[in-house]
Amino acid sequence: IQSTLLEQDKPLVVAVGRDLNAVFAVWRRDLEIQVGLVCLIAVVSTLGLRYFRRRQREFARKEAESVDVLATHERFLKGLSENVPGMIAYWDRDLRCRYASRGYIEWFGHDAARDDEAAPGPGPRPLAMSGAQIDEALHGRPQLFEREIQRPGDRAAHVLVQYTPDRVGDRVDGFFALITDITRQKRDQEERMASMVAQRDALVREIHHRIKNTLQAVAGMLRRQLGRHQTLRDPLEQAVAQVFAIASVHGLQGQSDTELLRLSDMLRDIVRVGREFLGADSSLLFHIDSNVSHQVEKAEAVPLALILNELLRNALKHSVDEIEDEDRAVEVRLSESEEAAVIAISNDGASLPPDFDFAAGTGLGTGLGLVRSLMPTRGAVLSFSRRDGRVEVVLYLEFPVISRGDQSE
Q: Quick one: which of 30, 292, 323, 391 has the fewest CB in 10 Å?
């Protein structure tokens, strides 16, 4: 030490002595602590790394197992969706197909892998036919309905469509579509129904045929009583004619493939019965316009037959009574006027009673009284007139008593 305050030409050296162990004791303690910490950290890190690696291997194993399970489930679900007897698809809320089974794609030609192709419904084409059902499904209401669709390059097919909403809590993310082809079942059902209808029609025709035969037998027995009971001749003739008229209706129904009867055929049979009652020499003229093709409804067939029978019988009866030379010039004509069928029956020599009023029901005999009671409330109008020595009765028939038929029948 050489201080400027001291006048000395030599430096002052001060020697201090100290124990080295005491000097390095603190350093040694700190070093031991640090080394111990480093060792502890190394041991903990080694153990932690080993545990991490073991957990990592366990996680990888479980992940592999999960992948295998998911792959197995995916294969199962895919195999199930591809092999169930139906077409399966899934549509999201944006009406984009997120999945479509192979059968669905084959049926509708729709590529389910294209998420940008929005074409919901049973397929891309029937969107307009099931829009309401899609809206209902997206509001969480399951839908089940049938549709007839036209497959590309194929004939129409019947399908059963089921929409099941995909619910996530209170939210509907889309819907599952299950479409089942029921064309064969529909065809089989239609064939069974056609067979049942054919059997029923055959049975009904047989019943009508037997009723006709029974009624004709009854009319034959009544007819044999005409000669034995002269006082009852008029009511018996009326009863026989009425029974024959009803039998004619059942005979026509037994020959028809439908429940409708051609008006011309019915009138032709009524005229034939009238001719049989008057004999082969009776002068009864019958005309049918070629364009008449009306058909009689089933419920109106028997009343209409009785009405026509009574009108024709009344015309024939009064012609015979009032024409001495028995010139039974009774004319029956069937024509049409717009949508109505017109049946006109006229005779010579007859006259109407002074108090005759068909609408009011005055001056009517038994036959016309029956006609008035049988007249339909709708679709039929009856009028009487007399001109040039002839009495003409005109019956106008329209819907619902008759309907337009096929002229080619």
A: 30
Question: Which residues have C-beta within 8 Å of that of residue 401, sequence separation ≥ 6?
Answer: 296, 297, 300, 304, 376, 378, 379, 380
**pTM beyond 0.70, yes or no:** no
Spatial distance between the Cα atoms of 409 and 255, rounded to a whole number of angstroms: 13
Residue 159 in contact with residue 181, Cβ under 8 Å?
yes
Rounded to whole angstroms, the Cα distance separating 15 from 185 reads 121
Q: Are 93 and 169 in contact (CB under 8 A)?
A: no
For the residues of 329-379, what is the DSSP string, one character each? Answer: -EEEEEEEETTEEEEEEEEES----TT-BTTTTBS--HHHHHHHHH--SSS
201: burial class by Cβ within 10 Å (0-12, 13-18, 19+)?
Answer: middle
Residue 259, Cβ neighbours under 10 Å: how many?
Answer: 14
CB 117 within 8 A of CB 110: yes
CA–CA separation, 323 and 314 (whole Å): 14
Q: How do residues 290-319 score in pLDDT, each as one tens digit?
A: 677 788 887 888 888 888 888 888 887 776
DSSP 9: S
